[in-house]
Prior knowledge:
Layout: H1 16-67, E1 71-78, E2 81-92, E3 105-109, E4 113-118, E5 123-125, E6 138-143, E7 150-154, E8 159-161, E9 169-172, E10 174-177, E11 181-182, E12 188-189, E13 196-197, E14 210-213
Antiparallel strand pairs: 1-2, 1-14, 2-11, 2-12, 2-13, 3-4, 3-9, 4-5, 4-8, 6-7, 6-10, 7-8
Amino acid sequence: MRPLGFSDSRRQAFTLVELLIVMAIAVLLTASAIHLARPSFQDRKVREASRQLNAMFANAKAQAAERNRPFGVWLQRTPGNLNQCLDVYLAEVPPPYTGDMLNATATVSAGNVLTFDQPGAAGTLTASPGGLIEIGESFFIRFNYQGELYQGFFNGVTLTLSSTPPITISGLPFQIYRNPRKAAGAPLELSNGIAIDLGYSGVGAGGSAGAWNTTTN
């Protein structure tokens, strides 16, 4: 029996052991939820990267149709891991090069050496026309806007054709077709943790990683 007016201020509470058990259960539940949510988060990143790549291909197709020449997607290999791609560029095939002047002509002399005569411009060029062909790069050339395409090569000093038997051309108009280039603009950088596996895709470290869309007009 308590005296009249007496109040017991003691309250029911958890013991330290009970609190520790509850905290341990909460930690286990949180860890399980994170583990279950992780695959879903990874799937979202893969889907977003796929959406971005599809948009890149659609842009290349639109550019090809608009400009009536090939556009595509350039998969940049990662330094140190040639089977991996993290950056994707829009790429284009430059328009045919016909000289810096309207009356530019080409000559093929002994040894299949290719030179250009552009009166009023740079005179006779024995190196890359306009600096548009890189050292070690191959290209194709057609003379007088018709006939056969001849493959050429720039060794840093002269342009030569790989024609057998050798040919002789004197002062004819020409069209040079160059290799694809990265188009102007920033690349698509794939989401963190997402990469294109070129080996798994069948390209491999030694293959071509170009994927092209061309106009059908």
